[in-house]
Amino acid sequence: MASYKLMVKDVIKKADVLLEVIDARFPDETRNSEVERDITRANKPFIIVINKCDLVSKETLEKTKSRLSKIAPTIFVSNKEKFGTTLLRHKILEIAGIKGREILVGSIGYPNTGKSSVINGVSGRHSARTSPISGYTRGVQLVDAGSRIMFIDTPGVIPFGENDEYIQGLLGVKDATHLQDKIGVAMRIIGKLCAENKTVLESLYHVTIEGQDSYDAILLIGKECNFLKKKGEIDEERAAMKIINDWQKGLLV
């Protein structure tokens, strides 16, 4: 914990502009208010980069942008759809307000929010290594993005707390086999989908969810998938694992 704080402070100190990369599906859970306060105290401009925007509806994105743009300039990015990186480049140059030298840009965020992918998108080439495996970027590295933009690419930087298994499952940092509370994570996924996009949940599993809570929905899906134990009881853990795996594969979008 102490080492990550020192690294964040060092990146904030050296950078001219900071990017806080968050996951479009979980904007509030992947923001870090403490880091944002440190950036503000250092009087450094920062941009909130809402990554993986292709995994969220346009309506949800606009609501998120409406809230977060009051805190800092907000840019949507999808590396899969090759969207938003040119706008992000222009925004970096605009808010830096620096002429005659390179602009150092620090990227900060939780593991698996896609920091290196955002850097690659702005750079237009695979300068920074990317991987869905948390912690792949080892140590701090500088990435030349052209147009006087130089990224300070960092490892995960913001670590998860001991009690953040749910968000690790939701972000795909841990796959279903490595989660202790598989049912709890699956319930979070179902709760989110029922609130925002119940149709995709019902369509994928051929079920109708009307008034059931998240746990009952897991049982309903388990029954439809014929996940049964020897005595005919529904295998709730197997159903939960399928929901988590489908979520992490991007099927529940």
Automatic annotation (TrEMBL):
Annotated ranges, domain G: 105-166
Keywords: GTP-binding, Nucleotide-binding
InterPro entries, per database record: GTP-bd, GTP-bd_ortho_bundle_sf, GTPase_MTG1, P-loop_NTPase, TRAFAC_YlqF/YawG_RiboMat
Pfam families: MMR_HSR1
Any one GO molecular function term: GTP binding
Keyword Ligase on entry: no
Protein's recorded name: GTPase
Organism: Candidatus Methanoperedens nitratireducens
